[in-house]
Amino acid sequence: MPVLIILLVIALILVILGIRKIYYLSSDPTTEKDFFPPIHHESKPLNEAPAQLPFSQLGGTINDVTGVNRTSIYGILQIKSEDDLRNALQFARQQKLTVSIAGAKHSMGSQEFATDTLVLDMRGFNQMSVDAKSKILTVQSGAIWHHILEYLNPYTLSIEAMQSFDLPTVGGTISVNAHGLDHRIGGIASTIQSLRLMLADGSIRTLSRQENDELFQAAVGGYGLLGIILDTQLTLMDNLAYTEVRTIMKTQDFPSAYARIVSDPSYHMFYARLSDAPSSFLKETIIYAYKVVDQTLPLEPLKPENFVQLTRFVFNLGRKSYVGREIKWWAEKNIQPLLEKYPQTRNQIMYRSYAYLKNNLQNNTDVLQEYFLPTEQILAFIQGLGDILQRLAVVTRNVEIRSVHNENILLDYAKADWLGVVLYLNFDVTEQDMRKIREAHSELIDLAQSLGGSFYLPYQLSATRAQIDNSYPEFGRFLELKKQYDVDLLFTSKFYQKYGTM
User: Fold this and answer.
1) For 156, left (φ over 0), alpha (ψ -120 to 50), or beta?
2) SS3 letters across 89-131
3) What SS3 class is residue 239?
4) First to last CA, the chain
5) Nearest Cα to 26, choosing from 431, 308, 326?
6) What is the full DSSP assignment across 356-409?
7) Which of 439, 497, 460, 442 is nearest to 109 (CA)?
8) What CA–CA distance (Å, rounded) separates 470 from 464?
9) What distance in Å separates the CA atoms of residue 197 and residue 211, rounded to the nearest whole number?
10) 306-352 pLDDT, tens digit each
11) What 8-state DSSP symbol labels residue 252?
12) What mean pLDDT is reported for the chain?
């Protein structure tokens, strides 16, 4: 019966939209998004670049994953060694350039670049090794989690904390203190044994909770403004097997369900997804909880995601269509469980690139925002969230709840064991739509702060300095340390240029 229903739904959609529309909504992207702002800066021939430096681009522009932060730059260096980094810093000082550090460019507010900077692309700086006995991974900052999971899998070891998708770099993850699925762990800060940081003068410091602790607290979650993270030692855990426990409930019942999960030590990972369907907007929730099972699964290569084009089609169907959003939510409740098999290993669960989120939609993009709340305020925030998003008519693709903890770093987004509310919002690249996104973010920051919460910094730069100081009371001290260790302000970004000089 479920298969028959799927076929009937697909047939109906084909009749209504037509094959061309189906292809448009489901096809793989042909290029990275690069829409806005409408600036043009010619790239120069690479033979004009200094021969001793590994330039991959001279002049031209750069953008992040949203495609709406196009910026003119001096050039991009493909970093592969510490010598490349020292030479780059020396060249920047000689030429009176500023330097920005970039990885996968998944931050969404130009935290990785600024106008006329020399951009260090760290993705080629990606070596790693593992001490299987001690369960310690030593990894360079340009490695992406997708490859790290593949590397660790034969050792039957896994990561404790990373983002919920595997495309960012290690350095980027540390620079924003990203958190993931494991509600016991929280952000990556708690899993760092030590890291090495190259300062603006080319010297290297080893940082940990025991050595150079204040600089450690500034560099972790420091957005690449204190120096270049070279490598880090991360604690690992066994690659355990899990079954997924999926529960559909009214959102008002979430707090009690969450309390049961976090009090049960057999649950290691969790997230909740709220309805974006108009008929049940934010009023219905699916909890995904991962329970460890006493089972050893065969050691197999990690498998890529299935049904990418089908998932992309269903996801994009809801971009402008109320009916599409109803179909998407219905499919998530009723069809998705039929397409996934458990138990799965921890590595397999984390091995998610969410390729379906990339698309060919023209002059249209998505942005993330995240807000952090004391657990007892989560329902009040969700009520206000719904009011704001509906009043401003913001297209909401996804709303999820995650668990976060206080990490004892300077730019700590959680003051205790809190909950994060992650928004995935869609908009056309028009001034009207972009203004709506900015207004929504500003109002949601105020809402979170009125409930004793905070917001996340790696996204669009629509917050005020007062809002930052409210959520990050140590921001002033962070800027003092920035000036202490980077006297000439060599490392910069649009984020720093907007908030660091106020």
Assistant:
1) left
2) HHHHHHHCCCEEEECCCCCCCCCCCCCCCEEEEHHHCCCEEEE
3) coil
4) 62
5) 308
6) GG----TTEEEEEEEEEEEGGGHHHHHHHHHHHHHHTT-EEEEEEEEEE----S
7) 460
8) 10
9) 12
10) 999 989 988 998 887 889 999 999 999 999 999 899 999 999 999 99
11) G
12) 95
Nearest to 270 by CA among 401, 441, 425, 416: 401
b/e map 109-148, b = 16+ CB within 10 Å: bbbbbbbebbbbbbbbbbebebeeeebbbebbbbbbbbeb
Q: Which of 337, 398, 334, 404 lies closest to 367 in space, CA to CA?
A: 398
The pLDDT-based confidence of 2 (bands split at 50, 70, 90) is low
160 in Cβ contact with 145 (< 8 Å)? no
Closest to 189 in 3D by CA, of 215, 214, 162, 164: 162
Domain segments of the chain as ranges: 124-238, 241-465
pLDDT tens, 161-193? Answer: 999 999 999 999 999 999 999 999 999 999 999
| 283/274 Cα distance (integer angstroms) | 7
* Residues of the chain above pLDDT 90, percent: 86
Token pair belonging to 271: 């997230």
- Where residue 455 falls among pLDDT bands split at 50, 70, 90? very high
CATH architecture of the region 124-238: 2-Layer Sandwich (3.30)
Answer yes or no: is pLDDT of 484 > 80. yes
Q: Return the ∠ at Cα 327 (arms to 324 and 331), rounded to 5°.
A: 140
Q: Tell me the CATH class for 241-465.
A: alpha beta
| Percent of all residues in the chain with a pLDDT value above 70, rounded to a whole number | 98
pLDDT digits (tens, 9 = 90+) for 354-403: 999 999 998 999 999 999 999 999 999 999 999 999 999 999 999 999 99
| CA separation for the pair 395, 426 (Å, rounded) | 5
Q: Are strands 61-62 and 55-59 parallel, antiparallel or unpaired?
A: unpaired
